[in-house]
Amino acid sequence: MSLSLEVVNAFSLKDHANLCERWRQDRIVDDPSILGLGDVDLVTVEKVQPSAGRLDLLLQDEQLNRRYEVELMLGATDPSHIIRTIEYWDIERRRYPAYEHVAVIVAEDITTRFLNVMSLFSGSIPLVAIQVAALQIEDRVILHFVKVLNQTELRTDDAYEGNTEGSESDRSTWEDKVGGDIMSVCDAIVTVGNEVASSPLQLKYKKHRVSVAVAGSFFNVCVLRPKQQFVNLVAGVSDREEAT
Hints:
By secondary structure, this protein is of the alpha+beta class. It has 2 domains: 144 residues, Trna Endonuclease, Chain: A, domain 1, CATH 3.40.1350; 86 residues, no CATH class. Helices cover 27% and strands 32% of the residues. The protein is built from 7 helices and 11 strands. Strand 10 and strand 11 form a beta hairpin. Helix 5 crosses helix 6.
């Protein structure tokens, strides 16, 4: 019996004569999950940005209500692509604030210099950096994606979020601010919570937030930030994936 061992050769897409950046983009479009960002769907390709070029890929995770602004490049990361990635992320989050937004850069070489620069933005910009390797196995080409930076959760002020004091408010003030329909969404959240809660839950009204709290207690189950078109729910969990 003879054994045949396949030879694996790594190569640079930037230096390849035929496999250009568009080829790699098409592979991601065919199956966005290969980036390792979870259960994401393609929203659009080459999205035109006002006075800022084109966003390579816009992906969305429906379950997490999160959008990924993805910038693709060949070779090693460089300052222009870093700036472009952050710029596209900023434009999209301002235009569509109802989603959580994450900037994503995909390159063949995520340099140490790039990681050092991004450490300056730690806690301010949700960013994912993905390094891709192209592997030749006989007549096949395999793309291997690895996250080298996964900074998707920004820091919050724990002292503020957990503060049960502060300026008091009332229901009518919030209805004047965001409308009765949005406040009914807050009521619905409490209704759902009371289906499983061991102690009754109720809304507590503060100047800058509405808390879902245990009745007669200072304990907040979660914090609601009602807006005129949606409600932002903030909750602390020990295991995000399990909670989702």
